[in-house]
Write a structure and sequence with these properties.
The protein has 330 residues and is of the alpha+beta class. The chain contains 2 helices and 18 strands.
Length: 330
């Protein structure tokens, strides 16, 4: 048999190139045939309801504001509420009460235990000071008041009345029995100090507040686009029809009950449920199958699947042809 060497070389090169081509196509076919499963972190921060506008409350009355538990504002039960005190006034007089006499912890107001500095009263007149009940000084009603008598004089003559003629029990003055000043009018000069008048009193407070309607509540109409679910959307087999969603604690969410995924638009909306209401996490996780960026579909996919088969047929035909030539020569 006499076969042209060029013919054999040509056949050999063709077979080599064909083998390389089939290897590439086969590898590509495997890569593009399977859909890719992805675990995608989904940012849900934009779907959260944030703080409402600041609101101002004027002159809310708080009864018997103590220095221990204080009094809560009417809005103290709101979620994530933040209160800022503007002014505090005396309920009865309307006078401003400075912050020296109160403290605010968010939406709670307490009075402070504040002892006043020493004050002096000169020549306060006490009428008909008797030996039994005596007469109280004008400041006696102040809280925990302490009085220190420095001088007593006769209200008529101005003459000094020495301590042997009277006695004082804190802020109460009595004359002593058998003295010439019994049941007389006296002028008393004294020093006193006391605890803040505002403790356990009724106060008006003006404040501003902000709050969330719920703790990290969800806007149920906000659209969250699942990005990878939009790849190669022209191929029907690439349409992402279902996703598996887990919340920030790793718990699997229930479709429809906890979230809604619209496959035609690849849009996810979240329901306002406890499992998603979190003030600390702004992400959740979606798992789904999708067509990767290198995915080939339609007629191109069919062609790549047929090429290896055609190549096998071509090798078979070449083998038959070579066998025919060899048999013919013989």
């Amino acid at each position: 048999m006499n076969i042209n060497p060029k013919f054999l070389i040509t056949i050999g090169i063709a077979l080599l190139l064909g083998t390389i081509f089939v290897a590439i196509i086969s590898d590509k076919t495997v890569a593009i045939t399977d859909l890719t499963k992805v675990t995608d972190s989904v940012d849900i921060s934009s779907a959260r309801l944030f703080t409402e506008a600041t609101t101002k409350i004027n002159n809310e009355t708080l009864n018997a504001v103590s220095n221990s538990t204080g009094r809560n504002f009417a809005v103290s039960g709101y979620n994530n509420v933040v209160c800022t005190v503007v002014t505090v006034t005396n309920f009865s007089s309307g006078d401003i009460v400075t912050s020296a006499y109160w403290t605010a912890t968010n939406c709670n107001l307490k009075t402070k235990v504040v002892r006043s500095t020493n004050a002096t009263v000169n020549n306060e007149t006490l009428t008909a000071v008797d030996k039994t009940t005596g007469v109280d000084l004008a400041v006696n009603a102040k809280k925990d008041v302490k009085c220190y008598i420095t001088a007593v004089t006769n209200a008529s003559s101005g003459a000094a009345v020495f301590s042997g003629n009277w006695t004082a029990t804190n802020c109460n003055v009595k004359t002593l029995a058998g003295t010439e000043y019994e049941d007389n009018d006296l002028n008393v000069t004294y020093i006193y100090h006391y605890i803040s008048d505002y403790e356990d009193q009724k106060l008006n407070v003006t404040y501003t507040y902000t709050y969330r309607t719920k703790d990290g509540a969800i806007n149920t109409t906000y659209p969250i686009v699942i990005s990878k679910a939009t790849y190669n959307g022209n191929y029907p087999e690439c349409k992402v029809t279902t996703i598996e969603l887990t919340n920030q604690s790793g718990a699997t969410m229930a479709a429809t009950t906890d979230y809604v995924f619209t496959d035609t638009t690849a849009v996810l909306t979240l329901n306002d449920v406890v499992s998603l209401n979190s003030s600390t996490s702004n992400s959740t996780t979606a798992t789904y199958d999708y067509c990767g960026e290198n995915y080939v579909g339609g007629w191109a996919r069919n062609v790549t699947r047929l090429v290896p088969g055609f190549y096998v047929l071509a090798i078979l035909a070449a083998g038959i042809f070579l066998a025919y030539l060899l048999l013919k020569e013989d």
